[in-house]
Structure formats: structure tokens, C-alpha cells
């Protein structure tokens, strides 16, 4: 619990540093008190002598004048307090969400209150309180956020995961914590790892609420994205051939890519990895891969977990919650597309570069190039990072599940340089 961080950034907890802020606040308060007292002293001593003599004979006017001076002093104090609060926000580096609005849920107000450390100032970090980790864009969706925070404390959480995801996709990430119990779904019929990688997942252990499809048959008939066309069918079809059997020159094989790595591949990150097939193939080669997911039109997160893999429920607008230079391999495909805003892809590429170690591989797998302008912009962006091009293929594929026209795709394996 604490106040909310609205400074645009990664949305993680920010801390009030007492030493700097306290001294500045104390100086401002002392200045305010001295100013108001000097003003009061001047107000009472600046009247001419004949006017003072007149006031002695007119006590009612004297009381009225004193009241005016007191009111003026109070207004000055109130103005100074407002300036003080504004300066304190600027010193702390964040703006506080307005929780005084009507219809704001009480749980949200409680979560956003300042949370003092129980033992006072921390000697190592200098902080005295923690600030709630809530996305800055939550301010733009107060009604939805308040609706998300209405529930029975210590009771079952509402079946509103789709509401939470809607907030995430609007930039309200991370969401505030809640004091309720998520619905428990019995996980019966799970297979042991690694057998679980390619065994059918029971539809009964997944949550279908809030989704258009209610079974795998429906999902596999839909093209959920360019990277997920029948991707929930892991017993037959193309999904079980991915990364081990190429359908075209843009399809790289896992073993060929791993052979390009210097220092070996141990851990990786798959961005928008569909149903987790890339992570499954890597797991067969003793490589741990985390798969970034959202449950857009399908239960991706639960399905990946049922296969014994690691889903990370996170949008691509969120700064990746990993330390610098930790991954040996990052795999991404068309889910990397930032839409019509090139700066969005640029921010994302810098974050990918941050978490990839020097010498690590960035595997861009069948990235859809909508036009030559986008292909050129992406190529120039990649070249800015100075990556070594180990593989680079631009080719065409027929959109069999859509228009039937040939589309241009870029596949590449790039190696991050060691920078000084």
C-alpha cells in the first residue's frame, strides 16, 4: 500500500528518499512560518499613531481589524501549504493519483495510501516509506480501475480477468494487488515433464470465461494471429513441425541457430510465443525459456503452464522485469510489431538489447513486413545496434488462412556486440 507512481516509466515501486525531501520541506516550512509572522508583525505595527489612538476608543473596529489580519494570515498559510505540497511532489518525482474522486473504491484508496516502513528509515537505502507499484496510465481509466478493486475482502475474487487485461492493454500495468482469492480450477490429468510438452491438454482445467471460443476445436479453426494458426493442436498439424522442419527459406531450425551461439545457450525469452511450442522445443535441448503471454482470444497462459513451461503474463508496453544482460537468446516474431508508431518498436528494441547478454542471439522469426517502408525502417533500426548478421533472409509466403496473397517476411539471427 502507498501512493501511486504516475511518472512515465517502468511502473515499478518508487521510494520516497527522506534525507533530501525532508530537508527541503523543512526549509520551505521554516520560510513560510517566518514570512507569515513578519507579515503579521508589520500589519499590527505599521498603523499611524493617531489611527492607533482612534482604535482605542473604537474597540469594535479594533476587533474587526484583528479578524481581517488573522484571516489574511490564514490564507497566506493555506497558500504556503499548497505550494509546499506541490514542491514535495516535484521533489519526490511522482504525481499522486486523485483518490478523492467520487465512486473510487475503498480498497483502491487503502492500497494507494502511504505505507510507512515499520522500523522507520532504512539505513541502507534511506527510504522511509514504499510507494504502490501501479501503472501511470491507470489515471486515465479510474472507473474501470475502481470496478476492478470492488470485491469482498478475503472472499473469492470476481471472475473479471478480462477486465484486468483490458486495463493492462490500456497501459494500466502493473495492476494493484487485491485481498481476495482467485478462483481455483482443479488441475486434474496433468502429465509429468517432459512428457507434458506434447500431450493433449484437458479443456476442463482451463478458464474459458470471457472468451469467444469455449474449446480447442473452435480455437484451432481460427487464425488468432500470424504466429498462432492452429497453434493449440500439439498432436498433429504444422505446430509439431515448427522449428524442426522448415516449410520455406524463412523458417530457421533450432539446431542450426544453436550452432551459431558462442558460449552456449542456457536461458532464453520468447516474446509473444503463442502456445509455447518454441519453449517446448528448447526444453528438449535443456534450455529454459520464459514465454511472454496475454490471454487475447485464447487461454495462452494456462495452456503453456499445462505443458510444464513458464508463461509470463505481461504486455509488450511493460518494461521487461529482468536485470541487464541476463539472457543468452531472445526469440520474437510478428508480435514484435509496434503498429504505426516506429518509436514504440524503438523503445522495445532497446529493452530487448538491455536484457540480452553480449554475444547473445536475437532471433527475429518470420517478422511480417507490411510494406517496404516498414521493412526499411526495421532494417535501419537493427543496424543502429551494431549486431552481427549471422543469418538474414527476406522472403515471401502465401497467406493461406487469409487473403491468399504473397506476403513479405524477414527472418534473421543477430549477435549482440560487446560494447565498451
From TrEMBL:
<dbReference type="InterPro" id="IPR029063">
    <property type="entry name" value="SAM-dependent_MTases_sf"/>
</dbReference>
<feature type="transmembrane region" description="Helical">
    <location>
        <begin position="24"/>
        <end position="44"/>
    </location>
</feature>
<comment type="similarity">
    <text>Belongs to the methyltransferase superfamily.</text>
</comment>
<keyword id="KW-0175">Coiled coil</keyword>
<keyword id="KW-0808">Transferase</keyword>
<dbReference type="GO" id="GO:0008168">
    <property type="term" value="F:methyltransferase activity"/>
</dbReference>
<dbReference type="GO" id="GO:0012505">
    <property type="term" value="C:endomembrane system"/>
</dbReference>
<keyword id="KW-0489">Methyltransferase</keyword>
<dbReference type="InterPro" id="IPR053223">
    <property type="entry name" value="Prob_Methyltransferase"/>
</dbReference>
<dbReference type="GO" id="GO:0032259">
    <property type="term" value="P:methylation"/>
</dbReference>
<dbReference type="InterPro" id="IPR004159">
    <property type="entry name" value="Put_SAM_MeTrfase"/>
</dbReference>
<keyword id="KW-0472">Membrane</keyword>
<feature type="coiled-coil region">
    <location>
        <begin position="70"/>
        <end position="97"/>
    </location>
</feature>
<protein>
    <recommendedName>
        <fullName>Methyltransferase type 11 domain-containing protein</fullName>
    </recommendedName>
</protein>
<keyword id="KW-1133">Transmembrane helix</keyword>
<dbReference type="Pfam" id="PF03141">
    <property type="entry name" value="Methyltransf_29"/>
</dbReference>
<dbReference type="GO" id="GO:0016020">
    <property type="term" value="C:membrane"/>
</dbReference>
<keyword id="KW-0735">Signal-anchor</keyword>
<keyword id="KW-0812">Transmembrane</keyword>
<keyword id="KW-0325">Glycoprotein</keyword>
Amino acid at each position: 500500500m502507498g501512493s501511486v507512481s504516475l511518472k512515465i516509466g517502468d511502473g515499478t515501486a518508487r521510494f520516497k528518499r527522506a534525507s533530501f525531501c525532508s530537508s527541503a520541506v523543512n526549509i520551505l516550512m521554516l520560510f513560510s512560518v517566518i514570512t507569515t509572522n513578519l507579515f503579521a508583525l508589520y500589519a499590527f505595527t505599521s498603523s499611524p499613531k493617531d489611527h492607533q489612538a482612534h482604535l482605542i476608543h473604537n474597540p469594535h473596529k479594533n476587533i474587526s481589524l484583528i479578524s481581517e489580519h488573522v484571516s489574511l494570515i490564514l490564507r497566506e498559510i493555506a497558500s504556503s501549504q499548497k505550494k509546499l505540497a506541490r514542491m514535495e511532489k516535484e521533489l519526490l518525482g511522482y504525481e499522486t493519483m486523485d483518490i478523492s474522486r467520487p465512486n473510487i473504491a475503498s480498497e483502491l484508496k487503502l492500497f494507494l495510501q502511504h505505507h510507512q516502513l515499520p522500523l522507520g528509515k532504512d539505513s541502507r537505502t534511506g527510504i522511509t516509506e514504499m510507494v504502490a507499484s501501479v501503472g501511470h496510465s491507470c489515471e486515465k481509466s479510474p472507473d474501470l480501475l475502481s470496478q476492478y478493486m470492488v470485491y469482498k475482502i478475503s472472499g473469492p475474487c470476481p471472475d473479471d480477468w478480462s477486465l484486468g487485461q483490458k486495463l493492462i492493454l490500456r497501459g494500466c500495468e502493473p495492476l494493484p494487488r487485491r485481498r481476495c482469492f482467485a478462483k481455483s480450477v482443479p488441475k486434474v490429468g496433468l502429465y509429468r515433464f517432459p512428457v507434458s510438452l506434447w500431450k493433449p491438454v484437458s479443456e476442463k482445467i482451463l478458464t474459458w470465461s470471457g472468451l469467444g471460443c469455449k474449446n480447442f476445436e473452435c480455437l484451432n479453426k481460427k487464425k488468432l494471429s500470424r504466429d498462432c494458426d492452429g497453434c493449440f493442436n500439439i498432436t498433429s498439424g504444422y505446430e509439431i513441425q515448427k522449428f524442426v522442419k522448415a516449410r520455406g527459406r524463412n523458417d530457421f531450425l533450432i539446431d542450426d541457430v544453436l550452432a551459431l551461439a558462442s558460449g552456449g545457450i542456457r536461458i532464453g525469452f520468447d516474446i509473444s510465443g503463442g502456445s509455447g511450442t518454441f519453449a517446448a522445443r528448447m526444453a528438449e535441448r535443456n534450455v529454459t525459456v520464459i514465454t511472454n503471454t496475454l490471454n487475447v482470444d485464447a487461454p495462452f497462459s494456462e495452456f503453456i503452464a499445462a505443458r510444464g513451461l513458464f508463461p509470463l503474463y505481461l504486455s509488450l508496453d511493460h518494461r521487461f522485469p529482468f536485470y541487464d544482460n541476463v539472457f543468452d537468446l531472445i526469440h520474437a516474431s510478428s508480435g514484435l510489431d509496434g503498429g504505426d508508431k516506429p518509436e514504440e518498436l524503438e523503445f522495445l528494441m532497446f529493452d530487448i538489447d538491455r536484457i540480452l547478454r553480449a554475444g547473445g542471439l536475437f532471433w527475429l522469426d518470420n517478422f511480417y513486413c507490411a510494406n517496404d517502408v516498414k521493412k526499411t525502417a526495421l532494417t535501419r533500426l537493427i543496424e543502429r545496434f551494431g549486431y552481427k548478421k549471422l543469418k538474414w533472409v527476406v522472403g515471401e509466403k502465401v497467406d493461406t488462412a487469409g487473403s491468399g496473397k504473397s506476403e513479405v517476411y524477414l527472418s534473421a539471427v543477430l549477435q549482440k556486440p560487446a560494447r565498451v
